[in-house]
Amino acid sequence: MDPLTGPSKNSWRPVMTTDTTTSSYWLNWRVLICIIWVLMSLVFSSCLISNYEGPQNSRNRRRENPEEESAGLLYDDEIWRPCLRGIHPAWLLGFRVFAFFVLLILLILNVVVDGGGIFYYYTQWTFTLITIYFGLGSLLSLYGCYQYQKEVGGDKIANDELDTEQGTSAQAGSTSITNTGKSSGPNEDLYVRQIAGFWGYVFQIIFQMNAGAVILTDCVFWFIIVPFLAIKDYNLNFLIINMHTINVVFLLGDTALNSLRFPWFRIAYFFLWTSVYVIFQWIVHAIVSLWWAYPFLDLSSPFSPLWYSSVALLHIPCYGIFTLVMKMKHTLLSKYFPESYQCAH
Q: Which residues contact 29 (CB under 8 A, 6 or more apart)?
Protein backbone atom coordinates (compact mmCIF):
# COMPACT_ATOMS: atom_id res chain seq x y z
CA MET A 1 0.00 0.00 0.00
CA ASP A 2 1.47 3.31 -1.11
CA PRO A 3 0.31 6.32 0.96
CA LEU A 4 0.80 8.63 -2.04
CA THR A 5 -1.05 6.62 -4.69
CA GLY A 6 -3.73 5.30 -2.39
CA PRO A 7 -4.70 2.04 -0.75
CA SER A 8 -4.81 -1.39 -2.30
CA LYS A 9 -8.08 -3.12 -2.96
CA ASN A 10 -8.28 -4.68 0.51
CA SER A 11 -6.91 -1.71 2.44
CA TRP A 12 -8.70 0.90 4.48
CA ARG A 13 -7.62 4.46 5.10
CA PRO A 14 -9.10 7.47 6.90
CA VAL A 15 -10.79 10.20 4.88
CA MET A 16 -8.72 13.35 4.31
CA THR A 17 -10.12 16.23 6.31
CA THR A 18 -8.19 19.15 4.81
CA ASP A 19 -5.08 20.15 2.88
CA THR A 20 -2.12 19.60 5.20
CA THR A 21 0.33 21.71 3.19
CA THR A 22 -1.36 25.07 3.77
CA SER A 23 0.01 27.54 6.31
CA SER A 24 -3.38 27.80 8.02
CA TYR A 25 -3.21 24.11 8.87
CA TRP A 26 0.00 24.58 10.88
CA LEU A 27 -0.20 28.13 12.23
CA ASN A 28 -2.83 27.77 14.94
CA TRP A 29 -3.18 27.13 18.67
CA ARG A 30 -3.84 23.39 18.28
CA VAL A 31 -0.52 22.75 16.57
CA LEU A 32 1.30 24.94 19.07
CA ILE A 33 -0.02 22.91 22.02
CA CYS A 34 0.83 19.61 20.31
CA ILE A 35 4.35 20.87 19.61
CA ILE A 36 4.69 21.76 23.29
CA TRP A 37 3.64 18.21 24.26
CA VAL A 38 6.26 16.70 21.95
CA LEU A 39 8.97 19.11 23.14
CA MET A 40 8.16 18.27 26.76
CA SER A 41 8.57 14.58 25.96
CA LEU A 42 11.93 15.25 24.29
CA VAL A 43 13.21 17.36 27.21
CA PHE A 44 11.97 14.82 29.78
CA SER A 45 13.68 11.98 27.89
CA SER A 46 16.93 13.90 27.47
CA CYS A 47 17.11 14.66 31.20
CA LEU A 48 16.62 11.02 32.15
CA ILE A 49 19.21 9.78 29.67
CA SER A 50 21.84 12.36 30.62
CA ASN A 51 21.43 11.60 34.33
CA TYR A 52 21.36 7.80 34.28
CA GLU A 53 22.57 6.33 31.00
CA GLY A 54 25.93 4.83 30.16
CA PRO A 55 28.89 3.25 31.93
CA GLN A 56 30.40 6.64 32.81
CA ASN A 57 27.38 7.57 34.94
CA SER A 58 27.53 4.09 36.44
CA ARG A 59 31.16 4.59 37.51
CA ASN A 60 30.45 8.03 38.97
CA ARG A 61 27.55 6.73 41.05
CA ARG A 62 29.55 3.75 42.26
CA ARG A 63 32.30 6.09 43.46
CA GLU A 64 29.69 8.03 45.42
CA ASN A 65 28.11 4.85 46.82
CA PRO A 66 30.27 1.74 46.26
CA GLU A 67 27.64 -0.55 47.79
CA GLU A 68 24.96 0.35 45.22
CA GLU A 69 24.99 -0.42 41.50
CA SER A 70 23.84 2.28 39.12
CA ALA A 71 20.47 1.88 37.41
CA GLY A 72 22.14 2.19 34.01
CA LEU A 73 24.82 -0.42 34.62
CA LEU A 74 25.02 -3.36 32.22
CA TYR A 75 27.56 -6.19 32.31
CA ASP A 76 28.81 -7.81 29.13
CA ASP A 77 27.66 -11.33 30.04
CA GLU A 78 24.10 -10.18 30.77
CA ILE A 79 23.61 -9.64 27.03
CA TRP A 80 24.05 -13.29 26.03
CA ARG A 81 23.81 -15.38 29.21
CA PRO A 82 20.43 -17.02 30.00
CA CYS A 83 18.82 -16.20 33.32
CA LEU A 84 19.25 -19.77 34.65
CA ARG A 85 22.68 -21.33 35.06
CA GLY A 86 21.48 -24.70 33.81
CA ILE A 87 20.60 -23.29 30.36
CA HIS A 88 23.43 -23.17 27.84
CA PRO A 89 23.80 -19.80 26.01
CA ALA A 90 23.34 -21.71 22.73
CA TRP A 91 19.62 -22.10 23.53
CA LEU A 92 19.20 -18.33 23.74
CA LEU A 93 21.22 -17.98 20.53
CA GLY A 94 19.00 -20.51 18.75
CA PHE A 95 15.82 -18.75 19.89
CA ARG A 96 17.07 -15.35 18.74
CA VAL A 97 18.18 -16.65 15.34
CA PHE A 98 14.82 -18.38 14.80
CA ALA A 99 12.87 -15.27 15.85
CA PHE A 100 14.99 -13.04 13.62
CA PHE A 101 14.39 -15.09 10.47
CA VAL A 102 10.66 -15.47 11.12
CA LEU A 103 10.25 -11.72 11.70
CA LEU A 104 12.43 -10.86 8.71
CA ILE A 105 10.43 -13.14 6.41
CA LEU A 106 7.16 -11.62 7.61
CA LEU A 107 8.52 -8.11 7.08
CA ILE A 108 9.71 -8.94 3.56
CA LEU A 109 6.37 -10.56 2.70
CA ASN A 110 4.55 -7.48 3.95
CA VAL A 111 6.70 -5.22 1.75
CA VAL A 112 6.14 -7.48 -1.28
CA VAL A 113 2.36 -7.57 -0.76
CA ASP A 114 1.71 -3.94 0.24
CA GLY A 115 4.83 -2.08 -0.94
CA GLY A 116 7.25 0.21 0.83
CA GLY A 117 4.40 2.44 1.96
CA ILE A 118 3.91 0.17 4.98
CA PHE A 119 6.70 2.12 6.67
CA TYR A 120 4.28 5.01 6.86
CA TYR A 121 2.85 3.24 9.91
CA TYR A 122 4.12 3.09 13.49
CA THR A 123 3.41 -0.66 13.48
CA GLN A 124 6.01 -1.31 10.79
CA TRP A 125 8.52 0.97 12.50
CA THR A 126 8.14 -1.10 15.67
CA PHE A 127 8.14 -4.41 13.78
CA THR A 128 11.37 -3.39 12.04
CA LEU A 129 12.86 -2.39 15.39
CA ILE A 130 12.11 -5.77 16.97
CA THR A 131 13.56 -7.51 13.90
CA ILE A 132 16.75 -5.49 14.35
CA TYR A 133 16.72 -6.43 18.04
CA PHE A 134 16.75 -10.15 17.29
CA GLY A 135 19.30 -9.74 14.50
CA LEU A 136 21.71 -7.85 16.75
CA GLY A 137 20.91 -10.23 19.60
CA SER A 138 21.84 -13.20 17.44
CA LEU A 139 25.27 -11.70 16.72
CA LEU A 140 25.87 -10.84 20.37
CA SER A 141 24.74 -14.30 21.49
CA LEU A 142 27.09 -15.87 18.95
CA TYR A 143 29.92 -13.85 20.49
CA GLY A 144 28.68 -14.88 23.94
CA CYS A 145 28.78 -18.58 23.08
CA TYR A 146 32.40 -18.12 22.00
CA GLN A 147 33.18 -16.37 25.30
CA TYR A 148 31.38 -19.07 27.23
CA GLN A 149 33.40 -21.83 25.57
CA LYS A 150 36.59 -19.93 26.42
CA GLU A 151 35.49 -19.68 30.06
CA VAL A 152 34.59 -23.38 30.24
CA GLY A 153 37.85 -24.38 28.54
CA GLY A 154 39.90 -22.09 30.76
CA ASP A 155 38.25 -23.42 33.92
CA LYS A 156 38.90 -27.01 32.81
CA ILE A 157 42.61 -26.33 32.20
CA ALA A 158 42.91 -24.47 35.49
CA ASN A 159 41.22 -27.30 37.37
CA ASP A 160 43.57 -29.84 35.80
CA GLU A 161 46.56 -27.73 36.81
CA LEU A 162 45.18 -27.36 40.32
CA ASP A 163 44.66 -31.11 40.63
CA THR A 164 48.27 -31.67 39.53
CA GLU A 165 49.57 -29.18 42.06
CA GLN A 166 47.49 -30.75 44.81
CA GLY A 167 48.80 -34.17 43.87
CA THR A 168 52.43 -33.10 44.04
CA SER A 169 51.95 -31.17 47.25
CA ALA A 170 49.88 -33.84 49.04
CA GLN A 171 52.76 -34.32 51.47
CA ALA A 172 52.18 -30.80 52.79
CA GLY A 173 49.48 -32.19 55.04
CA SER A 174 46.01 -31.19 56.12
CA THR A 175 46.75 -27.43 56.24
CA SER A 176 47.26 -27.25 52.50
CA ILE A 177 44.13 -29.29 51.85
CA THR A 178 42.06 -27.04 54.07
CA ASN A 179 43.27 -23.88 52.31
CA THR A 180 42.52 -25.19 48.83
CA GLY A 181 39.08 -26.31 49.98
CA LYS A 182 38.11 -22.75 50.79
CA SER A 183 38.13 -21.74 47.14
CA SER A 184 35.14 -22.81 45.02
CA GLY A 185 37.02 -22.36 41.75
CA PRO A 186 40.50 -21.53 40.47
CA ASN A 187 39.44 -18.34 38.72
CA GLU A 188 36.81 -17.11 41.13
CA ASP A 189 38.96 -14.51 42.87
CA LEU A 190 40.57 -13.37 39.62
CA TYR A 191 37.33 -13.06 37.60
CA VAL A 192 36.11 -9.50 37.11
CA ARG A 193 32.88 -8.89 35.22
CA GLN A 194 33.33 -6.61 32.25
CA ILE A 195 30.98 -3.68 31.68
CA ALA A 196 29.17 -3.95 28.37
CA GLY A 197 30.47 -2.07 25.36
CA PHE A 198 28.68 0.21 22.90
CA TRP A 199 26.69 -2.50 21.07
CA GLY A 200 25.71 -4.08 24.36
CA TYR A 201 24.12 -0.85 25.53
CA VAL A 202 22.47 -0.35 22.12
CA PHE A 203 20.98 -3.83 22.42
CA GLN A 204 19.69 -3.15 25.94
CA ILE A 205 18.15 0.15 24.84
CA ILE A 206 16.41 -1.45 21.84
CA PHE A 207 15.04 -4.15 24.16
CA GLN A 208 13.42 -1.56 26.40
CA MET A 209 12.18 0.51 23.47
CA ASN A 210 10.52 -2.61 22.08
CA ALA A 211 9.01 -3.43 25.45
CA GLY A 212 6.92 -0.28 25.45
CA ALA A 213 6.39 0.10 21.70
CA VAL A 214 5.16 -3.47 21.14
CA ILE A 215 2.65 -3.21 23.99
CA LEU A 216 1.47 0.19 22.74
CA THR A 217 1.16 -0.99 19.13
CA ASP A 218 -0.70 -4.20 19.92
CA CYS A 219 -3.02 -2.62 22.48
CA VAL A 220 -4.00 0.21 20.13
CA PHE A 221 -4.47 -2.27 17.28
CA TRP A 222 -6.54 -4.91 19.09
CA PHE A 223 -8.55 -2.66 21.41
CA ILE A 224 -9.09 0.46 19.25
CA ILE A 225 -8.40 -0.12 15.56
CA VAL A 226 -9.78 -3.66 15.18
CA PRO A 227 -13.22 -2.86 16.72
CA PHE A 228 -13.40 0.24 14.52
CA LEU A 229 -12.49 -1.70 11.37
CA ALA A 230 -15.01 -4.40 12.30
CA ILE A 231 -17.70 -1.74 12.17
CA LYS A 232 -16.45 -0.85 8.67
CA ASP A 233 -16.65 -4.55 7.62
CA TYR A 234 -12.93 -4.64 6.94
CA ASN A 235 -11.40 -8.13 6.87
CA LEU A 236 -7.99 -8.47 8.48
CA ASN A 237 -5.51 -10.56 6.49
CA PHE A 238 -3.01 -13.14 7.75
CA LEU A 239 -0.02 -10.77 7.67
CA ILE A 240 -1.72 -8.03 9.67
CA ILE A 241 -2.86 -10.43 12.39
CA ASN A 242 0.55 -12.08 12.64
CA MET A 243 2.46 -8.79 12.78
CA HIS A 244 0.37 -7.74 15.79
CA THR A 245 0.72 -11.08 17.58
CA ILE A 246 4.05 -12.76 16.92
CA ASN A 247 6.04 -9.66 17.90
CA VAL A 248 4.90 -9.80 21.51
CA VAL A 249 5.19 -13.61 21.61
CA PHE A 250 8.85 -13.52 20.58
CA LEU A 251 9.61 -10.59 22.87
CA LEU A 252 8.10 -12.36 25.88
CA GLY A 253 9.99 -15.54 24.98
CA ASP A 254 13.29 -13.67 24.88
CA THR A 255 12.41 -11.90 28.13
CA ALA A 256 11.81 -15.25 29.85
CA LEU A 257 15.25 -16.51 28.76
CA ASN A 258 17.55 -13.49 28.90
CA SER A 259 19.41 -11.83 31.77
CA LEU A 260 18.81 -8.24 30.69
CA ARG A 261 17.91 -5.59 33.24
CA PHE A 262 14.89 -3.30 33.01
CA PRO A 263 15.67 0.04 34.70
CA TRP A 264 12.73 2.42 34.74
CA PHE A 265 14.59 5.44 33.32
CA ARG A 266 14.86 3.90 29.85
CA ILE A 267 11.22 4.73 29.27
CA ALA A 268 12.91 7.85 27.89
CA TYR A 269 13.87 5.96 24.73
CA PHE A 270 10.27 4.82 24.31
CA PHE A 271 9.14 8.46 24.41
CA LEU A 272 11.91 9.41 21.97
CA TRP A 273 10.91 6.63 19.57
CA THR A 274 7.29 7.80 19.39
CA SER A 275 8.29 11.47 19.25
CA VAL A 276 10.54 10.82 16.24
CA TYR A 277 7.65 9.05 14.49
CA VAL A 278 5.29 11.97 15.18
CA ILE A 279 7.85 14.49 13.87
CA PHE A 280 8.32 12.29 10.79
CA GLN A 281 4.55 12.40 10.19
CA TRP A 282 4.51 16.18 10.58
CA ILE A 283 7.33 16.63 8.05
CA VAL A 284 5.65 14.33 5.52
CA HIS A 285 2.30 16.11 5.83
CA ALA A 286 3.88 19.54 5.63
CA ILE A 287 5.39 18.55 2.26
CA VAL A 288 2.62 16.35 0.82
CA SER A 289 -1.11 16.61 1.41
CA LEU A 290 -2.31 13.13 2.32
CA TRP A 291 -4.35 11.28 4.89
CA TRP A 292 -3.04 10.56 8.37
CA ALA A 293 -1.93 7.03 9.20
CA TYR A 294 -3.77 7.33 12.51
CA PRO A 295 -6.79 9.66 12.82
CA PHE A 296 -5.77 10.86 16.30
CA LEU A 297 -2.64 12.46 14.78
CA ASP A 298 -4.75 14.78 12.60
CA LEU A 299 -4.01 18.33 13.75
CA SER A 300 -7.17 19.77 12.20
CA SER A 301 -9.33 18.29 14.94
CA PRO A 302 -10.14 20.65 17.84
CA PHE A 303 -9.46 17.67 20.12
CA SER A 304 -5.97 17.04 18.73
CA PRO A 305 -4.17 18.44 21.84
CA LEU A 306 -6.23 16.08 23.99
CA TRP A 307 -5.42 13.15 21.69
CA TYR A 308 -1.71 13.89 21.70
CA SER A 309 -1.54 14.23 25.48
CA SER A 310 -3.58 11.02 25.91
CA VAL A 311 -1.24 9.03 23.66
CA ALA A 312 1.77 10.45 25.53
CA LEU A 313 0.30 9.41 28.88
CA LEU A 314 -0.55 5.98 27.44
CA HIS A 315 3.19 5.29 27.24
CA ILE A 316 3.36 5.03 31.03
CA PRO A 317 0.91 2.12 31.53
CA CYS A 318 2.27 0.34 28.42
CA TYR A 319 5.79 0.50 29.83
CA GLY A 320 4.40 -0.33 33.26
CA ILE A 321 2.81 -3.52 31.94
CA PHE A 322 6.19 -4.79 30.81
CA THR A 323 7.76 -3.71 34.09
CA LEU A 324 5.22 -5.95 35.85
CA VAL A 325 6.13 -8.79 33.49
CA MET A 326 9.79 -8.39 34.49
CA LYS A 327 8.91 -8.31 38.19
CA MET A 328 6.79 -11.44 37.81
CA LYS A 329 9.71 -13.17 36.06
CA HIS A 330 12.10 -12.24 38.89
CA THR A 331 9.62 -13.33 41.57
CA LEU A 332 8.76 -16.71 40.04
CA LEU A 333 12.23 -17.75 38.89
CA SER A 334 13.98 -16.64 42.08
CA LYS A 335 11.36 -18.55 44.07
CA TYR A 336 11.44 -21.82 42.13
CA PHE A 337 15.10 -21.71 41.00
CA PRO A 338 16.86 -19.83 43.83
CA GLU A 339 20.28 -21.39 43.26
CA SER A 340 20.21 -21.20 39.47
CA TYR A 341 18.63 -17.78 38.88
CA GLN A 342 21.30 -15.18 38.08
CA CYS A 343 19.53 -11.97 37.01
CA ALA A 344 20.03 -8.63 38.72
CA HIS A 345 16.85 -7.40 40.38
A: none
